[in-house]
């Protein structure tokens, strides 16, 4: 029987043991249906999810809801929206109780006297030109001023096909303001012209992402295996899609056979009652979904499948470490 | 009593081998003291699946809060023994 220690040397086995018992149980929460931007390609608005539920406005109900979520075993709250920072009281209901990650466009600064160590993910959709095309404004100037040097913030850089050959400039900009960056790929839910990935572009961007990780290891939080999986949609010969996705809301998961999945994962709407199908848009074609967190989780829940060769298991460890760093379960 | 726990260990090992589709090991050769997380690489989802089979097999409920303690087959066997004696 292959055991973990039989596949790893001491260095890798120590790394494995630092993450093997973390038992991260995340769920995702729409904090609000509103946003101060309207980005082309934002799945929340393009799929009509912002109209699915009327947001709960009584903050006391948010507090009691979070208590119930903790009783359900959730130990990581991932806040999305709409724009969560429009509702700081709701964010606080989570932050006071459990590890919390807030995905934001960064235009409103999270007050650090109120949320001193909450991890903040700043969305960034490319260079100035892409940002203006897709989001109506270049947010980097504002977000970098708001968060320069913040040890509990990083950029979530959504790479578009138009970014080929340009990612280094963005990575350097981020490094120069003392922040880190995690890369993901645009899924182009609104079919914006020129922003859908072609096979050859995915091959090229994978090489570019690898090169950025090699050149800026202190700035880029990533792994080459993650780049492989997200650009090919293939892991250990299996193709990503509905039958494999780990991030399906447990109450909506009627798949047979049941794939490996995130334990008790739910994506809640902001009325605190409605649930969404998965971590991203219900209208998205799963076979072309490029969601970074879903692909990371796909690797993470399939640990045993990676206990095959030393390289497979090392790949798994690197992806799990990346996730654990992005959500502050282990240091950068 | 020693025979009981040996039988329980062998049965639990068999369940784990079946559920995780482990290769090159039998219930008899499975090391009862092997760390299930650090060495076999099981995760909480695997353990939840195994707990369901054990529940059906032994008629006991394994509390989810107890999962972190159940680190080896021998410890699981002892846990089951304690649960069964509490039922009597």
Folded structure, characterized:
The complex is a heterodimer of chains A (332) and B (88). Chain A is of the alpha/beta class and 332 residues long. Chain A has a single domain (24-304), classed as Aldolase class I (TIM Barrel, Alpha-Beta Barrel). Chain A contains 13 helices and ten strands. In chain A, helix 2 (10-19) crosses helix 13. The longest helix of chain A is centred in the middle third of the chain and has 17 residues, at 199-215. Chain B has 88 residues and is mainly alpha-helical. Chain B has a single domain, classed as Orthogonal Bundle (Non-ribosomal Peptide Synthetase Peptidyl Carrier Protein, Chain A). Chain B is built from four helices and no strands. Chain B is globular. The mean pLDDT of chain B is 91.
Overall 3D geometry of chain A? globular
- Kindly provide the name of the CATH class of chain A: Alpha Beta
Any idea what the radius of gyration of chain B is?
A: 12 Å
Largest interface: A-B, 19 and 20 residues
Q: In CATH terms, what is the architecture of chain A?
A: Alpha-Beta Barrel
Strand content of chain A: 5-15%
Q: How many domains would you count in the coordinates of chain B?
A: 1
Show unreliable segments of chain B. Answer: none
- What is the CATH C-level name of chain B? Mainly Alpha
**What is the CA-based Rg of chain A, rounded?**
19 Å
What is the β-strand count of chain B? Answer: 0
State the CATH superfamily name of chain B. Answer: ACP-like
pLDDT averaged over residues of chain A? 94
Q: Tell me how many strands of chain A there are.
A: 10
Order of helices and strands of chain B: HHHH
**Order of strands across the widest beta sheet of chain A?**
6-5-4-3-2-1-9-10
Overall structural class of chain A, as computed from helix and strand content, comes to alpha/beta
| Main sheet summary of chain A | 8 strands, mixed
Number of helices of chain A: 13
Report, as a whole number of angstroms, the end-to-end distance of chain B: 15 Å
Order of helices and strands of chain A: HHEHHEHEEHHEHEHHEEEEHHH
């Amino acid at each position: 029987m292959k055991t973990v220690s039989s596949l790893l040397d001491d260095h890798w086995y120590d790394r494995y043991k630092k993450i093997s018992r973390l038992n991260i149980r995340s769920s995702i929460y729409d904090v609000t249906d509103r946003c101060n931007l309207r980005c082309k390609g934002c799945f929340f608005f393009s799929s009509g999810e912002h109209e699915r539920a009327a947001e709960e406005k009584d903050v006391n109900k948010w507090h009691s809801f979070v208590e119930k979520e903790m009783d359900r075993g959730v130990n990581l709250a991932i806040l999305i929206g709409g724009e969560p920072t429009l509702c700081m009281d709701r964010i606080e209901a989570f932050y006071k109780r459990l590890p919390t990650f807030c995905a934001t466009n960064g235009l409103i600064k999270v007050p650090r006297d109120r949320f001193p160590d909450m991890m903040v993910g700043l969305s960034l959709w490319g260079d100035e030109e892409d940002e203006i095309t897709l989001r109506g404004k270049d947010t980097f100037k504002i977000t970098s001023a708001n968060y320069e040097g913040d040890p509990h913030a990083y950029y979530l850089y959504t790479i578009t096909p138009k970014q080929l050959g340009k990612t280094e400039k963005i990575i350097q900009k981020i490094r120069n303001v003392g922040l880190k960056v995690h890369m993901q790929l645009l899924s182009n839910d609104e079919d914006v012209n020129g922003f859908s990935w072609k096979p050859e572009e995915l091959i090229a961007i994978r090489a570019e992402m690898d090169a950025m990780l090699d050149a800026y290891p202190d700035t880029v939080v990533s792994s080459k295996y993650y780049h492989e999986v997200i650009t090919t949609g293939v892991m250990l010969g299996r193709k990503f899609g509905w039958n494999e996705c780990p991030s399906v809301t447990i109450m909506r998961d009627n798949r047979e056979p049941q794939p490996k999945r995130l334990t008790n994962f739910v994506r809640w709407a902001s009325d605190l009652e409605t649930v969404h199908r998965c971590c991203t848009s219900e209208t998205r074609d799963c076979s072309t979904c490029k969601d970074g967190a879903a692909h990371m989780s796909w690797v993470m829940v399939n640990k045993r499948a990676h206990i095959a060769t030393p390289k497979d298991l090392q790949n798994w460890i690197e992806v799990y470490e990346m996730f654990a760093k992005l959500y502050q379960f282990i240091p950068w | 009593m020693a025979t009981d726990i040996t039988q329980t260990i062998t049965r639990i090992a068999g369940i784990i081998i079946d559920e995780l589709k482990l290769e090159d090991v039998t219930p008899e050769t499975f090391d009862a003291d092997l760390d299930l997380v650090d060495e076999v690489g099981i995760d909480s989802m695997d353990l939840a699946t195994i707990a369901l089979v054990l529940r059906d097999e032994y008629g006991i409920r394994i509390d989810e809060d107890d999962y972190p303690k159940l680190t080896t087959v021998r410890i699981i066997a002892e846990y089951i023994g304690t649960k069964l004696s509490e039922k009597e």
